[in-house]
Write a structure and sequence with these properties.
Structural class: alpha+beta
Shape: globular
Radius of gyration: 20 Å
Mean pLDDT: 90
Largest sheet: 5 strands, mixed
Strand order of the largest sheet: 1-4-3-5-2
Low-confidence stretches: none
Strand content: 5-15%
Length: about 290
């Protein structure tokens, strides 16, 4: 983040684009971004391009990662953009109005997912992020220990972002408005809760189904049991369905099968979430680098 701020200090252009070193953006992406900025209003501070991977079929992990990105960048982000609500930035292929970025004082050098934090600050300042219909190809992390380190850093940064902006929740509500405040709670707070709570609830469900522990019956009276069962079956089905649809929409038909195995991928995400939770207290500013060229 400090390197980004140094770059911002030396930037001279009207617009500023941010890419990772291994990125392969579509050749006309910068032209598209300039053309898009000329058509949108002055309240648009950033255009976020779509991200995809150029090694989706390397192994099962990259297949899962690709299905996740397809759901996020092809379905979720365009929906959030159409609603005009908060968009947590993706870290690369961000196209900024340089003056707006300087007004926001660049990136938070102490946040290990400074892109997510910047997306929230853009919304708090009354500006918008829109999605750009252009794709940047990058390398999906294909080795599990490196993937866990990368995801740990991301989740730890989400925790930092959530707690920093919730220092004064009433001020946050006033600046965002009720709708975007609720979106913030769902996108960040809800995501963090899901990562941490998921293995707990799966374990309770397993104990109940296998061992029929009577003590658990008191935790799940009639209505609570029905709502839990609804979330278990309908909620999980919807998440799997969205991932499969996103792969189908990208015509990556062979990745639909990997999307159907998403619950196994969620185990890895929850493990990374708990690792991030403990690391948040022991090593809050540790930046675990993602290895590329694998």
């Amino acid at each position: 983040s400090s390197d980004l701020n140094i770059g911002l200090a030396h930037a001279r252009g009207r617009y500023l684009a941010l890419y990772d070193a291994e990125d392969r953006p579509e050749p006309d992406q910068l032209r598209k971004a300039v053309a898009a900025f000329s058509r949108v209003g002055p309240k648009v501070a950033c255009l976020q391009a779509k991200l995809n991977f150029y090694n989706p079929r390397q192994n099962l992990l990259t297949r899962w990662f690709t299905a996740e990105y397809a759901a996020w960048f092809d379905l979720a982000l365009p929906g959030l953009s159409a609603l005009g609500t908060i968009i947590p930035l993706g870290g690369t292929s961000n196209h900024f109005v340089t003056a707006r970025l300087r007004e926001l004082r660049g990136w938070d050098a102490y946040n290990v997912t400074e892109d997510c934090d910047l997306g929230v600050r853009i919304a708090r300042a009354g500006y918008r992020v829109l999605t750009l219909d252009s794709t940047t190809w990058e390398e999906a992390c294909s080795v599990l220990p490196y993937w866990i380190s990368q995801r740990t850093r991301w989740v730890k940064g989400y925790m930092q972002t959530y707690l920093v902006h919730m220092r004064n929740p009433f001020r946050l509500l006033r600046e965002l408005g009720l709708r975007d405040f609720l979106a913030f709670q769902i996108l960040l707070g809800g995501l963090l809760f899901a990562f941490l709570a998921n293995p707990i609830f799966w374990t309770l469900a397993l104990f109940w189904l296998v061992l029929r522990m009577e003590a658990l019956a008191d935790l799940f009276p009639g209505f609570v049991f029905l709502m839990s069962a609804f979330c278990l079956f309908v909620g999980n089905f919807l998440f799997i369905y969205v991932g499969a649809v996103a792969c189908y929409k990208r015509r990556a038909y062979d990745l639909v099968g990997a999307a159907l195995l998403a619950p196994a991928y969620w185990i890895l995400m929850s493990y990374s979430g708990w690792r991030a939770f403990f690391q948040f207290f022991s090593k809050p500013f540790l930046w675990e680098k993602t290895r590329h060229g694998l």
